[in-house]
């Protein structure tokens, strides 16, 4: 499909840098906010989304977080997925979104790990989540295919946790935003013009300037670079995460929960296949265009961990693998949302550290509300404000995979 590279106007009420999951979500929620009748431009350097986090996602949703606000954000995400057509205005062409609730199963092998799971379960239950702590005996009864040597407890929630069709949500946000008048162009923002405490516009790759009332940084793993253009810093960097899709010679008779093994490897059902993932041996920041794979990871780390935990998976065939980038928030592995305190019309939606796809409905809605009204009108997302970064007070999310 041909995409314009030049904007139709010389200035817009809102310019969104990055048109993947977060950019599309903000665009759609803005266009559908009853208090907004402004103009929106989305600038995307890679409209095939080949290098985006969105294209490399595992597309899972959970309520097993350690921060209550993340539970609430995912609860809205689950509600949004279930009622997608209604949220999209009741258009009969909008599909039901597929969701497969196999649940996440976090396994703890140490007293400290058990304590973290028990505290998180108590908080999640108080927030209305269906998480349960399962002792090793309960685990053995419910999931007889695991080798539970060394495992003390597991925590499992089969309600609104598992895979969801994030790709269709993304497609429909872009499609509906475009039909509501949002302009998407293929171009790169290479500079941001700033006058004292606010931004006046952006500079595109060909040197042309576009004026902006608000600028949204939805640049994923490149968010730190975009922030630098505005003269501010963000503790967000690209980090590699690996995904492996495999076939088991002896598949399980039931869905495999998204099992988070104490080794750091996670594995789940993926239709008739299985999907596993992990961080690399070392986990430094990488260049935003570095997608070079470490082929030893599957052989040395992932396969042995899976075969150890699920003895029936002794014979596996690797079908596909890829490297993606987390937009990793080095302070606390949580989102950074809302205006930058020094540059009030520079709006952040960054640092999702591997759980952004499921958070995109709540985050896009929240940022649109803030742009329109200067406050959150529905779910209060102020715990994600930049202020904590400046103050060095982490909102630490411990349940990161
Ligand atoms: C391997 C992996 C597994 C994951 N699994 C899950 C999961 O199971 N569940 C979950 O909730 N989340 C998951 N995530 C995280 C999730 O995919 C991301 O949080 C989410 O996709 C982030 O979307 P985004 O729009 O912020 O970033 P991106 O998808 O990276 O999009 C940013 C866009 O900005 C564009 N851009 C950047 N700079 C510029 C510029 N200067 N000018 C113009 N355009 C620019 C880029 O081209 C890109 O398209 C996973 C991520 C990875 C890598």
Automatic annotation (TrEMBL):
<dbReference type="GO" id="GO:0032981">
    <property type="term" value="P:mitochondrial respiratory chain complex I assembly"/>
</dbReference>
<feature type="domain" description="FAD dependent oxidoreductase">
    <location>
        <begin position="13"/>
        <end position="370"/>
    </location>
</feature>
<keyword id="KW-0472">Membrane</keyword>
<keyword id="KW-1133">Transmembrane helix</keyword>
<dbReference type="InterPro" id="IPR036188">
    <property type="entry name" value="FAD/NAD-bd_sf"/>
</dbReference>
<dbReference type="InterPro" id="IPR006076">
    <property type="entry name" value="FAD-dep_OxRdtase"/>
</dbReference>
<dbReference type="GO" id="GO:0016491">
    <property type="term" value="F:oxidoreductase activity"/>
</dbReference>
<dbReference type="Pfam" id="PF01266">
    <property type="entry name" value="DAO"/>
</dbReference>
<keyword id="KW-0560">Oxidoreductase</keyword>
<protein>
    <submittedName>
        <fullName>FAD-binding oxidoreductase</fullName>
        <ecNumber>1.-.-.-</ecNumber>
    </submittedName>
</protein>
<keyword id="KW-0812">Transmembrane</keyword>
<feature type="transmembrane region" description="Helical">
    <location>
        <begin position="12"/>
        <end position="31"/>
    </location>
</feature>
<dbReference type="GO" id="GO:0005737">
    <property type="term" value="C:cytoplasm"/>
</dbReference>
């Amino acid at each position: 499909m041909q995409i314009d590279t030049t904007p139709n106007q010389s200035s817009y009420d809102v310019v969104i840098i990055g048109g993947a999951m977060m950019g599309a979500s903000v665009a759609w929620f803005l266009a559908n906010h009853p208090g907004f009748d402004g103009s929106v431009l989305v600038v995307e350097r890679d409209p095939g989304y080949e290098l985006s986090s969105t294209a490399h996602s595992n597309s899972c949703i959970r309520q097993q977080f350690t921060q209550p606000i993340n539970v609430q954000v995912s609860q809205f995400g689950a509600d949004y997925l279930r009622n997608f057509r209604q949220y999209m205005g009741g258009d009969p062409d909008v599909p039901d979104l597929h969701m497969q609730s196999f649940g996440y199963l976090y396994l703890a092998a140490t007293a400290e790990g058990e304590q973290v799971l028990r505290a998180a379960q108590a908080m999640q239950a108080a927030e209305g989540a269906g998480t349960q702590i399962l002792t090793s005996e309960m685990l053995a009864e419910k999931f007889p295919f695991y080798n539970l040597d060394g495992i003390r407890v597991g925590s499992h929630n089969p309600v609104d946790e598992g895979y969801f069709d994030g790709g269709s949500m993304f497609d429909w946000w872009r499609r509906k935003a475009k039909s509501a008048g949002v302009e998407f162009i293929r171009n790169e923002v290479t500079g941001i013009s700033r006058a004292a405490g606010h931004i006046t516009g952006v500079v595109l790759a060909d040197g042309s300037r576009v004026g902006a009332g608000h600028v949204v940084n939805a640049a994923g793993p490149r968010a730190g670079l975009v922030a630098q253009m505005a003269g501010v810093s963000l503790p967000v960097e690209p980090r590699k995460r690996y995904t492996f899709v495999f076939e088991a010679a002896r598949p399980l008779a039931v869905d495999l929960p998204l099992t988070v093994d104490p080794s750091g490897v996670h594995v789940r059902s993926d239709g008739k296949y299985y999907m596993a993932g992990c961080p690399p041996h070392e986990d430094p920041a990488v260049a935003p265009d570095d997608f070079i794979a470490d082929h030893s990871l599957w052989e040395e780390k992932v396969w042995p961990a899976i075969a150890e935990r699920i003895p029936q998976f002794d014979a596996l065939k690797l079908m596909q693998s890829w490297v993606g980038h987390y937009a990793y928030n080095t302070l606390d592995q949580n989102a950074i949302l809302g205006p930058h305190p020094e540059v009030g019309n520079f709006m952040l939606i960054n640092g999702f550290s591997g759980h952004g796809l499921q958070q995109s409905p709540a985050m896009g809605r929240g940022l649109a509300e803030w742009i329109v009204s200067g406050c959150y009108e529905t779910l209060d997302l102020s715990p994600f404000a930049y202020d904590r970064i400046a103050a060095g007070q982490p909102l630490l999310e411990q349940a990161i995979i």
